[in-house]
Structure formats: C-alpha cells, structure tokens
Hints:
Elements: H1 6-15, E1 28-29, H2 34-41, E2 49-53, H3 59-67, E3 70-75, H4 80-87, E4 94-98, H5 106-114, E5 119-124, H6 130-139, E6 146-152, H7 153-159, H8 170-178, E7 179-187, E8 192-193, E9 200-207, H9 218-228, H10 236-244, H11 248-257, H12 271-283
Parallel strand pairs: 2-3, 2-5, 3-4, 5-6
Antiparallel strand pairs: 1-8, 6-9, 7-9
Helix pairs in contact: 2-3, 6-8, 9-12, 10-11
The structure holds S-adenosylmethionine (SAM).
S-adenosylmethionine (SAM) binds near residues 53, 55, 75 and 76.
Amino acid sequence: xxxxxxxxxxxxxxxxxxxxxxxxxxxxxxxxxxxxxxxxxxxxxxxxxxxxxxxxxxxxxxxxxxxxxxxxxxxxxxxxxxxxxxxxxxxxxxxxxxxxxxxxxxxxxxxxxxxxxxxxxxxxxxxxxxxxxxxxxxxxxxxxxxxxxxxxxxxxxxxxxxxxxxxxxxxxxxxxxxxxxxxxxxxxxxxxxxxxxxxxxxxxxxxxxxxxxxxxxxxxxxxxxxxxxxxxxxxxxxxxxxxxxxxxxxxxxxxxxxxxxxxxxxxxxxxxxxxxxxxxxxxxxxxxxx
Length: 290
Ligand code: SAM
C-alpha cells in the first residue's frame, strides 16, 4: 500500500472516480510518521477499541487496525467506501460505518461494536466541524478512555489554553470542565494532500472521572460560560446582565457576593468563578437558557 505517496493516492482516488473534496475537509495525510504517532499517542494497543472519524483513504485506520483489537471508522463520503474496502481489505478487525458523525447515535454504536472494551477516539478531524464533534463526544456520556485528534494549530492552542488566560474562550472552559487537554505534537501543512492553508496539531483529551467543579445545574454552568465570552470587549457585568436579562445593579451585587470583579472579562475567570456565578443564578431561580 502506497498511501504515503501523493502520486499513488491521487491515482487511487482517480481509479474510483474521486478527488479530494474541500467541502468535506478532505486533506489526506501523506507523511509516513504522522499516523503511527497519532495511534501510539492515542493509546492504540491490544484489547482496546478505536473509534475513528473520517478515515479518508484509510491511512490512520490501518495504523489503528495494526495495534488495536477493533477499529470502527465513520465516513460521510459514500464514494470512499469501495476504496476503503480495498485499502482495509487485509484487516478483519476494521469496519467502516457510513454516516455523519454529528447525526449518528454514538452511544448505541459504541455499545454495539465495542461492548466492554476500553475505547479510544483517534482521528484527523474534518476541520469544519471540529468543535461540534469534540463537544458531542465529550457530552455523549460515553466513557472514552481518551480522545486524540488532529485539529488546526490555532484551534489546538485555544482548546488547551490555561485558565484563565488571554487565549481562553468559551470552548476552552467547556472542554476544561469535561477533560484535561494537551498538545501532543504539531504537524506542518506539507504533510497533507492537498496541503491545507493552515498548520495542524494533534491534541489529546483525557475525560475527567469527575468534573473539576461541582454545580447545582450543568445547563446553567454552560449558559454562564457562553454569556461570559459572548462579547469579548465587554465586562462580565454587561455580558451577564444582557444574556440573562437582569438589571445591572442586581448582577453587580451578585458578582460582589461571589468575589468576582464586575469589570472582569471572561478570559480572567477560572471554572470555580463560573461555577459560583452559575450556582447563585440557579438559587435566584434564573432560567439557564436566558
Ligand atoms: N483520516 C484521513 C487522513 O488522515 O488522511 C482523512 C482525514 S480528512 C481531514 C477528514 C475526513 O472526514 C474525510 O474523509 C471526510 O470525508 C470525512 N468527513 C467529513 N465530514 C464528516 C462527517 N460529518 N462525518 C464523518 N466523516 C466526515
């Protein structure tokens, strides 16, 4: 299999009447060191099941299949299925499921395909849906051992930014509530066919056994996270007041009560600050969807 040779991959695609589709985020890895590193860094090993999102021509799938008990790869592009039949033909433990990762019932799929096996996610994600895919995986209730994915380099920095910090955003906080996040290694654009306009990085998320902060209502916690970062130039006082439709005097009193400055910005808060604000709003009977 010459899946790390750009000309061979182009020839293989054209044999099946295909070419990389930008709209589906199809940038295929053609560097021989990247996929083995994702698989190893992602905990692929005997006895473990691997869930892959977007196998493309199957380069990472093959590396996972060599190391894991079983691999299930979800691919949206129906045209790639016969090609994957060829590139994965030698691996009885690799299965491709046709579908949209954002629409499939992942808890049922993981239960049916992997049973009691520990399951890791390993993927070179389609970048246009990075955040919904990651949040969907973290919110799915599935006890993934870890989630190791390639994303845009800037996205990786934002996701793994310390709290509080200037690079942190709502998604940083939402991820930090669910998992520990770190950058494993960076990948230059030249490692892909076709090369994207951005560099990439592989990140590893290890879900928490228990959230780092306790809250009365998780929906309220996420509503406060969204509100705190809704208007980056505005103070927390203004953001909370407009998101929850509360008078400024009331919000000011609330913030003083939880030892958070009214002039603070979302990027100056940590999860404990957000949790205290959320619990106070819950106790006041405020609706989280405000
Ligand atoms: N894993 C391959 C590699 O590393 O070379 C391909 C990665 S490519 C960046 C992303 C893959 O995700 C493509 O194969 C694309 O067709 C697939 N894809 C795009 N949107 C998807 C979705 N909503 N659900 C499942 N797969 C999707």
